[in-house]
Amino acid sequence: MATWEDELAELARGRGRALVGYAYVLCGDQRQAEDLVQDALVKVFSRLRRGPRTAPGVHPLEGGTSEAYVRRAILTLHLDEYRRRRRWNERRHLLAVDDQVRGAASGATARADVAAALGRLAPRERACVVLRYFEDLTVPQVAEALGLAQGTVKRYLADATASLRDVLRVPDERDGRTAGHVTTDRRAAR
Q: Stretch 74-92: mean pLDDT, rounded?
């Protein structure tokens, strides 16, 4: 065995528990402490495996014990992880979280369902729905684009919304009713 291998084996055998104890004092978790020691040993001794980068014959750990290097690596790795976790916690609230778990094909299925439901509408109702909700035009803009009165566009939208609501009914998990079944009053739907 090479000298670094002997040194690593001796350190792990003789001081392994003390190193894990040191890491445990830093992080407060046994498994994380063992991982820190493992990572520190790899970090310190992987340099030795590649060979010295300085002049031949000079041991990279000279001037201190290998345990001191490993302890310093444990501290550095712990602090790096703490900083990473803190930065993540500061930015985590910026991520969008989908509260519902979807199936693998739910996006494609939903698109197919909407396309089928739109296909059941009359051509003018469908045009009004597409222009209003997909193109995000206002009612006056839809009326102008289709050459219809605003009241007619509102009527087409109300009829189409009621029809789509019946076809695309989704169960509401909060109260057991179906979502979208809010009201049938056309004046409230405007």
A: 82
Strands 178-179 and 170-171: antiparallel
pLDDT > 60? residue 187 = no
Taking alpha carbons only, the member of 168, 72, 80 closest to residue 116 is 168
For residue 52, is pLDDT > 90?
Answer: no
Give the span between the Cα atoms of 13 and 49, in whole angstroms: 19
| Residue 185: closest CA among 164, 166, 158 | 158
Rg (CA), the chain: 33
Give the range with max mean pLDDT: 27-36, 47-56, 93-102. Answer: 27-36
pTM over 0.70: no
Structure tokens at 182: 């809010």
Residue whose pair of structure tokens reads 């493992």 in the numeric block: 38
- Please tell me the predicted confidence (pLDDT) of residue 154: 95
Give which of 17, 24, 42 is closest to 78, Cα–Cα: 24
Q: What is the 3-state secondary structure (H, E, C) of 87-126?
A: HHHHHHHHCCCCCCCCCCCHHHHHHHHHHHHHHCCCHHHH
Q: CA–CA separation, 136 vs 146, rounded Å?
A: 15
